[in-house]
Every structure is written in C-alpha cells, then in structure tokens.
Amino acid sequence: MAESPQSKATTRNAEVRPAWSDVGAHLRFWIAAVSLLALDLFSKWWVFSTLKPDEVRTLIPGTLELRRSLNDGAVFGSFSGYTGVFVVASIFALAFVVYLFLASARNQRLLQICLGMILAGACGNLYDRLAVQADVVRVNRGGQLRTVMIGQVLSEPGAERVQVGHWPEGDRLPPRTFDREDVVLSRQGVVRDFLKFVPSFPQWVPRVGGREVWPWVFNVADAALVCGVILLVGTSLFDRRGHQAG
User: Is residue 67 classed as helix, strand or coil in its secondary structure?
Assistant: First the structure.
C-alpha cells in the first residue's frame, strides 16, 4: 500500500526536528562527550601518577607505547608557545560545536556523535591548558624562541644557573642546567601527552626526510578531536552526495 503524501510529509517533519528538542540526540551527543572526556582526564592522571618521568611502557607491542610528555603547543605539538591563543580559540570552538549540535536534525545520529567527540577533545586539552601549570624553557634559535624543555624550575629566583627538573615531581637526576641569560622562562598551561606510535615495519619506511614516520606524542583528547573531525567531514561528504543523487 503506497504511503500518502500527508504521511510522507509527517515523516519528513519528524526527521528534520531539531536535535535540541530530542532526548535521543542529547543522549548521543553528551554520552560521547562526557565518556571520552572522562577517559582523557583519567588516562592523563593515571599515566603521570604511575609512570616514572623517563619510563617507556609498551601498550601494544610494535605499535603503541606509553611515555610521559608535556606539550605547550596544539594538537601533536604544533604551534608551540601560543597557549593564550589556544585557550581563546578553544572556547570559540566549543561554542561552535554546541551550536552545530543544537542546529542539527534529530536523525543525524553520526553527526551528533562526531560533535560529541570533538567537544570532548577540545574540553580535555582546554582543561590542561587552564589547570596544568609548568615551567617552559625556551632558547633563541634562528631569531625564534624554541622550547627545549618543559618541567619545574628547581633553582632559586635570580640564580645565574637555572636548574629544571621533571614536572610534577620536581626532580631530575641530574637536573638540566641552563645559563639564565641564554633562556627565556615562562610558567604557563601545558597539555599532558602520553601515547606514541612506534611503527612495526622499520625495514619498509623507517624515516621520511630524516624524520620518524610518527614523531608525535599525543593523548586521548587529540585522538577524539582528530577522529571526530575526520568522521564529520566524511559524514558531510556522504550526505552531500546523497542529496545530489536524490
């Protein structure tokens, strides 16, 4: 029995109902965001409470390792030293993600999960930049300040030699020492990273242009953010092709 035009219109209206008025849409969005955010913050706390500063622990043999690292940049350590810019950008990004969710249709389930993943990733790293304070040591190289260490200053204020130990323990055997006149010190928010891919096929592509295939250390928030964006782009392309085909 064919569906009447009135029934089709009713079905379409139900599908395009905005997500803000639908319980299921809220559950998908907020469960994805809260669960991934909790996993990110717990994993950061666990790694930095359990692993020693220089310890490397195998998570998946030949694929993934755990190691502590502090990052004063963006995702995968890019754009080091712009913490204030990242905080402001993250706040705008969070507002935009929530707006996209509220403006989505109730039946856009994958979109709502992707937006929840992005929200979790942005919130996880924003929390670190606001709450995790460490001493960043930079030196002038080629006219640019480059980060050489992130930790905790152990020497007295005004000392000619600056000793820097691990964060948060404040110890290093021995601590790294810098001439104060050669470095720029700043205390700022940093992001806790701990996941490192280690390719299991070094005989194939061990290095590209003299660099490791995957030189970055990252965290759950980075993974959620990047995967969420990739899925979001894929979902948008799929929806666009579907509309064009229709």
Answer: strand
Residue length of the chain: 246
d(CA 52, CA 168): 11
Contacts of 153 (CB under 8 A, 6+ apart): 135, 162, 163, 164, 185
List all residues 6 or more positions away from 155 whose beta carbon is below 8 Å from its beta carbon: 161, 162, 163
74-82 long-range contacts (CB < 8 A, ≥24 apart) are 75/125, 75/218, 75/222, 75/225, 75/226, 76/216, 76/218, 76/222, 77/193, 77/216, 77/217, 80/146, 80/147, 81/136, 81/138, 81/145, 81/147
Handedness of CA 210, 212, 218, 220 (dihedral sign): positive
Q: How far apart are CA 136 and CA 72, in angstroms?
A: 8
Angle 69-75-78 from CA coordinates, rounded to 5°: 85
Rounded CA separation 158/76 (Å): 34
Each residue's pLDDT tens digit, 185-242:
999 999 999 999 887 654 444 455 555 666 789 999 999 999 999 999 987 777 665 5
**Residue 63 corresponds to which tokens in the numbers above?**
């694929």
d(CA 64, CA 57): 9
pTM for the predicted model, two decimal places: 0.82
Q: 193 with 71: CB under 8 angstroms?
A: yes
Q: CA 64, CA 32: separation in Å to the nearest integer?
A: 24
